[in-house]
Amino acid sequence: MTGVRVRRARPEDIEAVVRLRCELWPDASTDEHAAEAAEVLAGNAPGIMPLEILVAETAQGEIAGFIEVGLRSHADGCDPARPVGYVEGWIVEARHRRRGIGALLVAAAEEWARDHGCAEMASDTWIDNQTSIDVHQALGFEIVDRCVIP
Fold first, then answer.
1. Going edge to edge, which strands form the sheet with 51-58?
2. Is residue 84 within 8 Å of 122, Cβ to Cβ?
3. Quick check: is 31 in a domain?
4. What residues are paired with 52 via a beta bridge?
5. What is the per-residue pLDDT across 112-143, written as a single tens digit (0 to 9) for each?
6. What is the domain-level CATH number for residue 97?
7. 94 φ, ψ (degrees, to nearest 5)
8. Which of 103, 78, 99, 74 is CA-nearest to residue 90?
9. Which of 3, 39, 103, 141 is deepest in the core (most CB within 10 A)?
Protein backbone atom coordinates (compact mmCIF):
# COMPACT_ATOMS: atom_id res chain seq x y z
CA MET A 1 0.00 0.00 0.00
CA THR A 2 1.66 3.20 -1.15
CA GLY A 3 1.42 6.24 1.07
CA VAL A 4 0.63 4.35 4.30
CA ARG A 5 3.17 3.75 7.03
CA VAL A 6 2.85 1.75 10.20
CA ARG A 7 4.37 3.22 13.31
CA ARG A 8 4.14 3.07 17.07
CA ALA A 9 1.11 4.94 18.35
CA ARG A 10 1.85 8.11 20.28
CA PRO A 11 -0.19 9.82 23.01
CA GLU A 12 -1.45 12.36 20.48
CA ASP A 13 -3.08 9.49 18.52
CA ILE A 14 -5.41 8.68 21.38
CA GLU A 15 -8.58 10.15 19.83
CA ALA A 16 -8.24 8.02 16.69
CA VAL A 17 -7.21 4.93 18.65
CA VAL A 18 -10.17 5.28 21.01
CA ARG A 19 -12.59 5.76 18.10
CA LEU A 20 -11.31 2.59 16.44
CA ARG A 21 -11.28 0.64 19.74
CA CYS A 22 -14.93 1.59 20.25
CA GLU A 23 -15.73 0.20 16.81
CA LEU A 24 -13.77 -3.00 17.43
CA TRP A 25 -14.95 -3.58 21.00
CA PRO A 26 -18.37 -1.88 21.31
CA ASP A 27 -19.19 -3.48 24.67
CA ALA A 28 -16.81 -1.17 26.54
CA SER A 29 -17.47 2.53 27.05
CA THR A 30 -15.53 5.32 25.39
CA ASP A 31 -14.15 6.26 28.82
CA GLU A 32 -12.94 2.69 29.43
CA HIS A 33 -11.23 2.61 26.04
CA ALA A 34 -9.66 6.02 26.63
CA ALA A 35 -8.28 4.98 30.02
CA GLU A 36 -6.87 1.68 28.72
CA ALA A 37 -5.37 3.24 25.60
CA ALA A 38 -3.82 6.11 27.57
CA GLU A 39 -2.06 3.61 29.84
CA VAL A 40 -0.65 1.62 26.92
CA LEU A 41 0.41 4.77 25.03
CA ALA A 42 2.16 6.00 28.18
CA GLY A 43 4.13 2.74 28.32
CA ASN A 44 2.16 1.34 31.25
CA ALA A 45 0.62 -1.76 29.75
CA PRO A 46 -1.42 -3.85 32.17
CA GLY A 47 0.20 -7.06 33.35
CA ILE A 48 3.80 -8.10 33.09
CA MET A 49 4.03 -8.84 29.36
CA PRO A 50 4.83 -6.11 26.81
CA LEU A 51 1.95 -4.61 24.83
CA GLU A 52 2.14 -2.13 21.95
CA ILE A 53 -0.32 -0.23 19.80
CA LEU A 54 0.76 0.29 16.19
CA VAL A 55 -1.14 2.57 13.83
CA ALA A 56 -1.44 2.79 10.06
CA GLU A 57 -1.05 6.42 9.05
CA THR A 58 -1.97 7.68 5.58
CA ALA A 59 0.14 10.18 3.63
CA GLN A 60 -2.40 12.80 4.77
CA GLY A 61 -1.70 12.03 8.44
CA GLU A 62 -4.96 10.17 9.07
CA ILE A 63 -5.00 7.08 11.27
CA ALA A 64 -6.63 4.41 9.07
CA GLY A 65 -6.32 1.50 11.50
CA PHE A 66 -4.49 0.01 14.41
CA ILE A 67 -3.22 -3.26 15.79
CA GLU A 68 -2.66 -3.99 19.44
CA VAL A 69 0.07 -6.60 19.78
CA GLY A 70 1.46 -8.18 22.88
CA LEU A 71 3.30 -11.16 24.23
CA ARG A 72 1.59 -14.12 25.84
CA SER A 73 3.20 -16.97 27.72
CA HIS A 74 1.34 -19.43 25.48
CA ALA A 75 -1.31 -19.70 22.78
CA ASP A 76 -3.22 -22.64 21.34
CA GLY A 77 -1.25 -24.35 18.59
CA CYS A 78 2.03 -22.63 19.48
CA ASP A 79 5.22 -23.99 21.06
CA PRO A 80 4.61 -23.79 24.84
CA ALA A 81 8.34 -23.51 25.51
CA ARG A 82 8.52 -19.84 24.51
CA PRO A 83 6.39 -16.70 24.50
CA VAL A 84 4.26 -15.96 21.47
CA GLY A 85 3.32 -12.71 19.79
CA TYR A 86 -0.42 -12.15 20.04
CA VAL A 87 -2.79 -9.91 18.11
CA GLU A 88 -5.01 -8.58 20.88
CA GLY A 89 -7.05 -6.42 18.53
CA TRP A 90 -6.87 -5.23 14.96
CA ILE A 91 -9.09 -3.04 12.82
CA VAL A 92 -8.93 -0.95 9.68
CA GLU A 93 -11.49 1.80 9.20
CA ALA A 94 -14.16 0.62 6.74
CA ARG A 95 -13.36 3.16 4.03
CA HIS A 96 -9.70 2.09 4.01
CA ARG A 97 -10.29 -1.66 3.81
CA ARG A 98 -9.29 -3.92 0.93
CA ARG A 99 -6.16 -1.86 0.23
CA GLY A 100 -3.58 -3.93 2.09
CA ILE A 101 -3.50 -1.86 5.28
CA GLY A 102 -4.48 -4.81 7.47
CA ALA A 103 -1.64 -6.84 6.00
CA LEU A 104 0.80 -3.99 6.72
CA LEU A 105 -0.39 -3.86 10.33
CA VAL A 106 -0.02 -7.61 10.81
CA ALA A 107 3.46 -7.58 9.22
CA ALA A 108 4.52 -4.80 11.60
CA ALA A 109 3.09 -6.74 14.55
CA GLU A 110 5.02 -9.83 13.46
CA GLU A 111 8.21 -7.77 13.28
CA TRP A 112 7.52 -6.37 16.77
CA ALA A 113 7.03 -9.93 18.06
CA ARG A 114 10.27 -11.13 16.42
CA ASP A 115 12.10 -8.20 18.03
CA HIS A 116 10.77 -9.52 21.36
CA GLY A 117 12.15 -13.03 20.72
CA CYS A 118 9.03 -14.68 19.32
CA ALA A 119 9.02 -17.22 16.51
CA GLU A 120 5.23 -17.51 16.32
CA MET A 121 2.23 -15.21 16.12
CA ALA A 122 -1.30 -16.00 17.24
CA SER A 123 -4.68 -14.28 17.23
CA ASP A 124 -8.30 -15.06 17.85
CA THR A 125 -11.71 -14.05 16.64
CA TRP A 126 -15.32 -14.93 17.31
CA ILE A 127 -16.46 -18.23 15.86
CA ASP A 128 -19.29 -16.46 13.97
CA ASN A 129 -17.12 -13.67 12.50
CA GLN A 130 -16.50 -15.19 9.08
CA THR A 131 -15.02 -11.98 7.66
CA SER A 132 -12.36 -11.94 10.37
CA ILE A 133 -11.70 -15.66 9.93
CA ASP A 134 -11.25 -15.14 6.18
CA VAL A 135 -8.89 -12.19 6.66
CA HIS A 136 -6.81 -14.09 9.22
CA GLN A 137 -6.51 -17.07 6.88
CA ALA A 138 -5.63 -14.84 3.91
CA LEU A 139 -2.70 -13.53 5.97
CA GLY A 140 -1.44 -17.01 6.81
CA PHE A 141 -3.10 -17.73 10.15
CA GLU A 142 -4.37 -21.28 10.61
CA ILE A 143 -7.36 -22.36 12.65
CA VAL A 144 -6.02 -24.51 15.48
CA ASP A 145 -8.94 -24.47 17.90
CA ARG A 146 -12.62 -23.59 18.08
CA CYS A 147 -14.35 -22.83 21.35
CA VAL A 148 -18.06 -22.89 21.86
CA ILE A 149 -19.34 -21.24 25.01
CA PRO A 150 -22.85 -21.97 26.30
1. 4-8, 51-58, 63-72, 84-92, 121-122
2. yes
3. yes
4. 69
5. 999 998 888 887 778 787 887 778 788 877 87
6. 3.40.630.30
7. -50, -45
8. 103
9. 141
